[in-house]
Amino acid sequence: MRYRLFLCSFLVLVGMLLFFIGVSQKSELASAYEEGDLLRLHIIANSDSKHDQEMKLKVRDKIIERFGEKISEIQSAKDAEEYIKDNIELITDAAYCASFVGDIDVQIGNFEFPDRVYGGTLLPAGTYRAVKVVLGKGMGQNWWCVMYPPLCFSGEEVTLRPKDIRIKSYIHDFWLKFKMGEIL
Questions:
Q1: How far apart are CA 162 and CA 42, in angstroms?
Q2: 96-147, pLDDT tens digit by residue?
Q3: CA–CA separation, 80 vs 154, rounded Å?
Q4: pTM score, two decimals?
Q5: Contact present, 59 and 43 (Cβ < 8 Å)
């Protein structure tokens, strides 16, 4: 019995230690957000037709292909924005290389964005610096990501909706397994 109590206490202590270590570590995105060192990419499709939505994604892929490596080497959002301003024609070229036909409007400025989760870190809704690419009439659904730090190049983004939020307690799960005799 003493052994079991000691082991349980030890495991709870280790669990708490791991929890606090995890909480104290900040992601690159969280640090960039706190310092206001973000640059987002926002692409708006011509319309909601299947063709225009597919074209938006092709343009996105070409922009990421053209800027990904260089943006990954840059050290600040300000430097990333300057690089894009100096090479803005690469965005237009990327769209045409993706076979887009029509007007392309590229703007750099402050734009509103909803909540977004990147790699487990919430980026709250608000006004952010962004590169906005409007394809054609810009009447379709849009796509966005964080261009600096370079999260566009690192995986999938998920829109956060309150009904999707679930809290999982590993300590609670451990305790239930312990009580049921699955542990020890």
A1: 23
A2: 988 989 999 999 999 998 887 766 777 788 898 999 999 999 999 998 888 8
A3: 17
A4: 0.66
A5: yes
